[in-house]
Structures are given as structure tokens and as C-alpha cells.
Amino acid sequence: MTSSSAPSARRYDLDWIRVSAFALLILYHVGLVYGVYGWHVHSAHTFEWMREAILITNPWRLTLLFLVSGAALRFMTLRRTPREVTRARFARLVPPLLFGTVALVPLQSWIEARDKANWPGGMDGYLDWMAREFSWRGLMDGVPVNHLWFIVYIAAYSAVTILLWRQPGLIPRIGDWLEQHLRGWRVLVLPILYLIFIRIALFPYFGLTNTLTVDWYNHALSLVAFIFGFAIVGRESIWRDMERLRWVSVALAAVALPIMMAQVWHPGGRAFWGVPKAIVYGIDQWAVITAILGFGSLYLRDRSSPVLKYLTEATFPLYLAHQTVLVIAVWIIRPANLSAPVELLSLVLITFLGSLAIYEVVKRIPFIRPLWGLKPLDDKPWPIDLRPEARTPYRRRRHLLGVGVAAPVIALLVVVVAIAAYPDFNNATQYLSELGGATARKPMIFNAGLFAAGIMAALAGIGFGLTIYALTRARIPAAVIAIVFILAGAGLSLSTLYPWPDPRHMVINLGLGIQLAPLLLLWGLAARNDLTRLKIFLAVTFVLMAILTVMTKHLVFPGTVNDANVGWWERIYAIVLVCWVGVAAWVLERKLRQLAIEAPLDGLHEAVIANPR
Question: Got the DSSP string for 65-84?
């Protein structure tokens, strides 16, 4: 890689631009509360002129963010392999996306449903809404992500760009081509021509959907901007040309913006198939971006500050929190009938300060920091350098076994809460599946909790399999154990999508093999003589499950378990069935930790096999 194509120092101007763009995004969403376009909730005050006012930032704000995000990804690739960058992107984006989809977006959707469809309020109304959204039918209709669509796109675009980066020499060739063809005035004109072309050719047919699979105009715009930012970070000639043309860009934008507003305001603005409007839109779009990049590169490239450092870390949590805070604030403040200026100021302050307060809280709680896109509480830079972590012995296996320890706890807590939410539930005569069935008052508690527990069980099974392989090199037992747990987890999770008494609920029978898992673990650990107590525990567990199985009315001894006590039998069986997994995972995790401490990194596996103790 040539020096001209490889960035070598942090670009603080890009940090300033990113922080400012997200601040504008928050203000933009506050503005939508007063607009005439469809949004989640509206103020009692709406203004027709908002159609034109949003054009101040609407054409270029997100395109600029995608461009800067691509540039940020480029810095991540320095001294890291594609695999390491992919893992870092996954760790940064996926936990916040899942958390936001489950915990943040439903609050917005519920309030919108209350506002537009008179959905019931209170905790009962919210839980009913969650049950509807995450029911089988709701999931088939798609899971709403609202403002988190940006994270989905960043993740997808990062994957595409990393695939391009993996192709030897491809990104440098793209950078060379851009550097050659965007010299001088062309850095302003050629991108404008491209933006005009896709606005004319794609936008009338696809529009902007923010749905990844059908958003082709947006991909032609945002994905190209992302890859463009990735490719030009180290191309100084392009940045110098944008610096030289910054005032020309400002002049173009100053002319284009009022014309664009007039085209939106005037009924004839879409004349000639909207081509004049697309031309002005494309000019404004790139002229503003070029001006911002040019001024930023010239004046902010080397200007760091404590404020920037603080805001750079805070930006992602603020982005996650702001729209939920705003929607809640509108719902609470609107009945007060404040004047528009006072209400607007209140919403701006509540949204920013409320989001900052959330950031200040979550950044101090280590185990929830990843859910908000924050790095661990140490001095490692973000994205973290994964190579030292990758050299930690058994790190992945221990994490998966940790999931195995947590899964039974989650499952038991879910059952306890679900029973508490079902006052008429009879522990003696009713099956646990009825907690998620049609007669339950809050089936979502049971179904969502057991769905998560099923996924955790599958992950734990992978951990068990990898651990057996690490300790004994027994491939077949390790694979069989992992498969049994994966099937059990899949059966548990899938069964919650078909609540009782749906016949498809019996997919839970995929998990019957878990009854043999203690024997399988004994098989896998046969070569080791240092886990005697664990082996005894597994043998006792298997015997106890066998006794409970033959006692059930479905097999032998039909009178022992009957309709009057089947519930208690099932409770005892469920406790045994899940709790042993946590105990076994805990013991094996401690064994791996002990071996990692005692054995040197080099030759660790060989030492384990040669001396199983």
C-alpha cells in the first residue's frame, strides 16, 4: 500500500464533523415533531413551512455521515486483519442494534400506537403491545427498528467494504482512480453529476424506504458515499482540492438552497418530470458536503480537545437514546399546551440533556456498556485491538460457558415472573407451556424469555463441545454434544413462536436429547481423571432424570404422576433439566481458567493432552 493511500494519523476534523452531524440529526428529529410529514408523534403545533425548512440539512446530512463512517472504517483497518475488523464491527454494532430493537424502539412504537390508534396505556397496554409486536405474526410483518435503520446500513456497508478490501489491491486501485479523475474542479462537478443521475434514474422508482432489501436509490447514494470515504482518507490531493474549492462550494449551496425550497413550495416544482428539481438537489447535496469537508480539513484536522473526546464517545449512546427520549417527551409535554417556542425549547433541552444523562449512567456500568456501543472500561482504544485478546487461552470457550451458567438463571427467573403475572395459574395441574399460551395474561414474558434462553442454550452447547475438544481432543463426542444442545435450544426457542396449544408448539421435542447430555459429557471427559466430582454429578443427574422420566404418566407407572400433580412433577423435572447445565458449565469454565493460568501460551494444548491429570 502506498503512502498516499494509507492514512497514518487520526483526523480530528472527521470526529468534529461526525459529532456535529449527529447533533443536527437530533435537531432534525425535533423539527419533524412540528412538520407535516408523517412521523411517530406530532406536536399540537405544526407548520407548513417545515416542508422547506428541513431542506437545510435533509439533502446532505446522512450522506455526509455515511462518508465519514466509511473513512472511520478505513482507520480501523490499519494494523488489523479483515477478520479482526469484522469482529470489531460486530461487537460495536450488533449488541446496540439488538438492544435498541427490543428495549428502545418498542417504547416509541407503543406511544405512536397510543397516539394514532388509541392503543391502551399503562403497563398492561405496553406488555400487550410487546406481545403483539414480537408474536409470530408480528415478527412475520417485520421488526420495526425506527431510527436504528442507520446501524443496520452501517453494518451492511461495512461488510461490503471489508469484502472489497479483502480483494488484493482493489481499494488502492479505486483510490488511484478517484485521485486521478477528481483533480481540481472535477472533485466538485463529477460527484454532482453522479448524484443528479441517480436522483433522476432511481429515486422516482424506489424512493427512500430505509428498508435494506428494497432501498436501491439509497444504496446507490449511501453505499457509494461510504466506499468513497473509505477510499479517499489518505488521498491528500483530493482533500487539498476540496479545501481550495470550499468557498465555491458555499456559493453553489447558497444559490441552490433557495431554488430547491421554491421548487418544493411552488406547485410547478416537479415540472419536466422533476429533472430540474433533481439537478438543484444534487448541486446542493454535494456542494454542502464539499464545503464542510474542505473547511474541516483546513481548520480542524489537528484540533483535538477534551470536549471533542467526550462527545466522540457520547455520540453513539446519544444517537441510540435520543429518539425514544424525544417521543416520550412529546407525549408528556403536549397536554400542557405550551406555546410553540417554549415547547420547542423544552423538547430540545429534554432530548439532549436526557440523552446525556442516560450516557452518564450507562458509561459507569461495565456490563451494559456494549449494549450502548461503548468500549470496555479500560484504556484500550476503540475499536479495540483484538490481537492480544485473541491470544488469551480459551477466551471464547469460557465466554460461551459463561452463557451456559447464565441460561438456567434466566430461564428460572422468567418462569417465576411469568407465574407471578398469571395469578390463576395452578402449579399442581397446569404445564409451564400454558404460561405462554392463550389463557395467560402476559404470555410475552414467558415466550420472549424462553426464546432468549433457547438461544443461550445453543451457544452454551457450542461452548461445551469446544471445551471437550480442548481438554481431550475427542472430536466426535464434542460434535455430538454441541449438536444436542443446539437442537435443544432451537426447539425451545421455536416453541415460543407457536404458543400452546398450537400443535407446532411440540417442536420443543427437539430438546429431548438434552436428557442424554450428561452421559455425552461423561463420554467426552472419559480421558481426564481430574474432574471426578463433575463426573459423579453428571452421573447422578442422569439417574435422577431417568427416574423422573419413568415416573411420568406417559410411560410406565401411570398412576404415580396424574392430572392432580403433573405440574409439580414438571417443575421438579425442569429444575433438574436446566440447573445441571449451569453447574457443569461453571465447573468447566473454572477448569479452563486454571489451565490458562498454569500453562504457557505456546504449546498449551499439547500440555493439556499430555498431562490430563
Answer: HHHHHHHHHHHHTTT--HHH
Spatial distance between the Cα atoms of 251 and 552, rounded to a whole number of angstroms: 82
Closest Cα to residue 10, out of 79, 71, 85? 71
Q: pLDDT band at residue 387, thresholds of 50, 70 and 90?
A: very low
Q: Which triple of cell numbers denotes residue 549?
A: 422420566
Residue (of 322, 348, 280) closest to 55 by Cα position: 280
| Those residues with Cβ within 8 angstroms of residue 508's Cβ, 6 or more apart along the chain or in another chain | 433, 491, 492, 494, 495
Cis peptide before 267 (omega within 30 of 0): no
pLDDT at 4 over 50: no
Q: Closest by alpha carbon to 289, among 518, 49, 60, 584?
A: 60
Type of residue found at 343: E
Taking the C-alpha atoms of residue 347 and residue 8, their distance in angstroms, rounded to an integer, is: 41
| Residue indicated by cell numbers 417556542 | 341
CA distance 237 to 179: 7
Alpha carbon 169 to its chain centroid, in Å, reads 31
Residue partners of 180: CB distance under 8 A and separation at least 6 = none
| Residue 189 near residue 279, CB atoms below 8 Å | no
Distances (CA, A) of 374 to 367, 474, 610: 10, 39, 42
Tell me if 359 sits within 8 A of 314, measured CB to CB: yes
Could you tell me the CA-to-CA distances from 358 to 24, 108, 150, 368 in Å, in that order? 19, 17, 20, 12
Contact 517, 538 (CB under 8 A): no
Q: Are 453 and 492 in contact (CB under 8 A)?
A: yes
- Of the candidates 252, 198, 193, which has an alpha carbon nearest to the alpha carbon of residue 223? 198
| Cα-based distances in Å from 150 to 24, 153, 444 | 15, 5, 28
H/E/C letters for each residue in 580-600?
A: HHHHHHHHHHHHHHHHHHHCC
Q: How confident is the model at residue 413 (pLDDT cuts 50, 70, 90)?
A: confident
Whether 482 and 464 have beta carbons less than 8 Å apart is answered as: yes
How far is the C-alpha of 306 from the C-alpha of 221, rounded, in Å? 34
Contact predicate 280/262, CB 8 Å: no
CA angle at residue 488 from 483 to 491, to 5 degrees?
125
Percent of the residues in the chain that have a pLDDT greater than 70, as a whole number: 90
**The total number of residues written for the chain in this structure:** 613
Euclidean distance between CA atoms 381 and 379, whole angstroms: 6
pLDDT in tens, 419-463: 877 777 787 777 778 888 878 777 888 888 888 888 888 898 999
pLDDT tens track for 563-613? 777 677 777 778 887 888 888 998 898 888 888 776 544 444 444 444 444
Burial class (CB within 10 angstroms; exposed 0-12, middle 13-18, buried 19+) of 194:
middle
Point out the least confidently predicted range of 145-154, 386-395, 421-430, 473-482: 386-395
